[in-house]
Design goal:
Elements: E1 10-12, E2 30-43, E3 49-63, E4 75-84, H1 87-93, E5 100-109, E6 119-128
Parallel strand pairs: 1-2, 4-6
Antiparallel strand pairs: 2-3, 2-5, 3-4, 5-6
Length: about 130
Amino acid sequence: MVFALSAFNIIAAPPVGGTMQGCLDYEPTEVALEGTISRRTFMNASDQKEVVWILRLAKPVCANADGGSDFNVERSRVTSVQLVLEADMFAKYRGLLGKRVRAMGTLFGEHTAHHFTPVLLDVTAVKPIS
């Protein structure tokens, strides 16, 4: 699935003065988030280790509730999001671990034992920030 960026994208870049900026919408709205990617290991509900990629945001964001969803609920002061990547994206973006990036995709709320942050990003692209 391919998403095109449009003039209506919201970019969660660091606002002036360090305050939180306007809230983001969940899927199907495409957003861009800035932060640093790290790899973290969590224990899932079956007591098995899962390694996931986390985007630690440059500045906190919030997410608007989606009235049509039980899990896309209002969230405030979101500082990290789990990145949901296609299998080939791990190799493609491995060189960006520990680097500052802009990750594009759609947001959704946690709803399985494999989700380790309240808000996740279904990634369409990741680009380094110079």
